[in-house]
């Protein structure tokens, strides 16, 4: 069992290791991550406002003794790891491809918006033409 602060990498670590967890969210997206893990059945969320030794012990004991947390964690891990290519192999593939092209990918790998000016990128030119027409007609 892991008792962690549910930042994105910690949730991923708990998911990949198929370990039931106790989350104590502190701020930002951690509340969502903790409740998502609880909804999936492999974690328990512990409020920072209820932090006492007794409450923490009871929550951890509940997660350790209830086997459904462990089975749900194992089930979620199989879903999470069910990929066409292992993440390490995928990363090596992209690095090798980058090295093959001398550190910069060929042009067709990049979106065309990179080379556009700021007005065109934000489509402001499309809005400026009707606005200009309205201004001219109103005078």
Number of domains: 2
Q: SSE order, as H and E?
A: EHEHEHHHHH
Mean pLDDT: 86
CATH topology of the largest domain: Rossmann fold
Strand share of the residues?
5-15%
Helix content: 55-70%
Distance between the termini: 73 Å
Quickly describe the structure:
This protein is 58% helix and 6% strand. It is built from seven helices and three strands. A three-stranded parallel β-sheet has the order 1-2-3, with helices on both faces.
What does this structure look like?
- The chain crosses the membrane at residues 118-137.
- Belongs to the UDP-glycosyltransferase family.
- GO terms for molecular function: glucuronosyltransferase activity.
- It catalyses: glucuronate acceptor + UDP-alpha-D-glucuronate = acceptor beta-D-glucuronoside + UDP + H(+).
- This protein is mainly α and 139 residues long.
- It has a three-stranded parallel β-sheet, sandwiched between helices.
- It has two domains: 2-81, Rossmann fold, CATH 3.40.50.2000; 87-138, no CATH class.
- The mean pLDDT is 86.
- It contains seven helices and three strands.
- The protein has helices at residues 8-16, 30-40, 53-65, 67-81, 87-100, 118-121, 124-138; strands at 2-4, 21-23, 43-45.
């Amino acid at each position: 069992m892991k008792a962690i602060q549910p930042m994105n990498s910690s949730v991923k670590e708990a998911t990949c290791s198929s370990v039931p967890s106790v989350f104590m969210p502190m701020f930002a997206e951690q509340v969502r991550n903790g409740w998502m893990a609880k909804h999936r059945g492999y974690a328990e969320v512990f409020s920072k406002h209820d932090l006492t030794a007794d409450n923490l012990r009871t929550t951890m004991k509940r997660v350790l003794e209830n086997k459904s947390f462990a089975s749900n964690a194992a089930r979620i891990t199989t879903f999470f790891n069910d990929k066409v290519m292992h993440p390490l192999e995928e990363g090596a593939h992209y690095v090798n491809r980058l090295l093959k092209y001398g550190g910069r990918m060929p042009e067709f790998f990049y979106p065309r918006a990179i080379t556009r000016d700021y007005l065109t990128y934000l489509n402001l030119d499309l809005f400026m033409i009707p606005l200009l027409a309205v201004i001219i007609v109103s005078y």
